[in-house]
Every structure is written in C-alpha cells, then in structure tokens.
Amino acid sequence: MERVQMELTVVEKHTITSTFLLLDQAEKSFAKLFYDCLFELAPMIKPMFKSDRQLIEQHFFIIFSTAVGNVTHPESLRTTLLNLGERHRAYGVESCHFGIVKSALLLAIQHELKGQCNANIENAWSKYYDFLAATIQEGMLSQSHIAQC
C-alpha cells in the first residue's frame, strides 16, 4: 500500500492547533459529544465498544491530543497509527466506518465551536483526519485484508 502524504498548509496546521485549544478546554464533554454523535450516526457499531465508555472516551482524547500535538510532524505518529490500525482490525472495524467517524468528529467540532466554526476549520480538520485515517487503514491491512461494507 502506498504511504499517504499529508499536505496541510501552515495555516491549516495553525487552524487545527488553535481550535484544539478550545476543544481541549472541554476535554470530557468533547469526547462524550464525539461518541454521542458517532453512536447516533451508526448505532450498529456501538456493540464493538466493549470497554467502559469513560475509558473509551479517555483513550480517544489521548489519541486525539497526540495527533494534534504532532500536526507539524505527522510522520512521528506513523508507528502509533499503524499499531492502532492493527488493533482496530481486531475489533472488527471496516473501511466504511472511517467516513462515519469523520462525520461524527466534524459534527462534534462544529457543536463545540458553535458560531466560531467555519469552512476553513472544517476543511483543515477534514484533511488531517483523512491522513490519520489512511495511515490507520494501512495498519489494518498490514496482516490481513480490510473488510468492505
């Protein structure tokens, strides 16, 4: 599989880090809101989450924070994302789930930023998510073939 290159501009990277500062202030509510959006959009994937919801939200926010902290040098995330992909494959994640997760993430960002959200913010997050998701999917493919919905 071809390695995905991230092509965020300096402005987009700044947009991600600056909006994250607002999301970080609402750490617990943002992670909860993300999963509320995700399970509303795709209730059929909720059974894949076997751990305690609070623990799942905490893990999500750690990964989310790490991704933002490395937005200027995303290659440093590669091994972490590939390993995450291998774990997600074991959980039964399929390629079609990534679009749903992206929608849930953007909805949560829109909600949390309220009137401050705009197309530039959504586009920056969307592009970065696409890079992260592609690398995770690469990890899912490393040992077996990803299922298609």
Automatic annotation (TrEMBL):
Q: Record's PROSITE patterns?
A: GLOBIN (PS01033)
Could you tell me which residue ranges the Globin domain spans?
7-141
Q: Name one Pfam family in it.
A: Globin
Read off the InterPro entries from this record: Globin (IPR000971), Globin-like_sf (IPR009050), Globin/Proto (IPR012292)
Look up the domain of life of the source: Bacteria
**An example molecular function term from Gene Ontology annotations:** FAD binding
A GO biological-process term: cellular response to nitrosative stress
Per UniProt, the keywords (alphabetical) are:
Heme, Iron, Metal-binding, Oxygen transport, Transport
Similarity comment: Belongs to the globin family.
| Stated name of the protein | Globin domain-containing protein
Q: Which organism is it from?
A: Rheinheimera riviphila
